[in-house]
Predict the structure.
Amino acid sequence: MRAAGLALTGLLAVGLAVLSGTAFASSGSSSASMTGMSSSPGWKHVGTTKGWLNGRTVTFKYTKNFFCRTPPASKASTKCEGGANFTQTPSSTFDPLYVIVPLGFTPSKSTLQCPIAGHCIDHPATIDLSAVLGKGTGNLALPPHSHIVATSNSHQAEWWNVYVVGVTSQSSWNKIVHDKSARELQRLQRHAKSGVTGNIGTNLFLYFSVR
């Protein structure tokens, strides 16, 4: 993984792009089904998005809402925080989910699995970035993104801790979309000129099975 300083740079880019409203792919109808949002993991909102695993496009089936607990401190209505790792978990076992966010360019909507900011099944609508961006960025819309996992967990539903990864290069985005794997993502993260940030920690967990 890249150094912490690079991860911080990536997070700054995410926040600035959200504030400027120019970098993220924007509106359009989502292929993911969606219901109302809540920070309670007990709510059962059943729906799906796509994801990538070992070179394949797979389906994530969500059966619980997201989990975000403080600390770390969060000003977001969802209690979700970017730029700081979780201190509480919804389960003793979980696997990482990499949320891939395009920065500074608009990729084809077909490559975005959650294409509308703040709207995706059992995801938080907003996230707090004030830990790195300061005042006024405590309740920003979760940006459009896609997903990568490194395991199917034997197709059993479980909690997944979210790492945000910013991508500033269209060519690197294309490589990720083509390879569809955590291995390619990590290869790009090791190269400073790839335009792919290190993993940016959050206190966000999502609950789904991989199919």
User: Anything to note?
Assistant: The chain has four helices and eight strands. The first helix runs from residue 4 to 20. Strands lie at 47-53, 56-68, 95-102, 126-127, 140-141, 146-149, 158-167, 200-210.
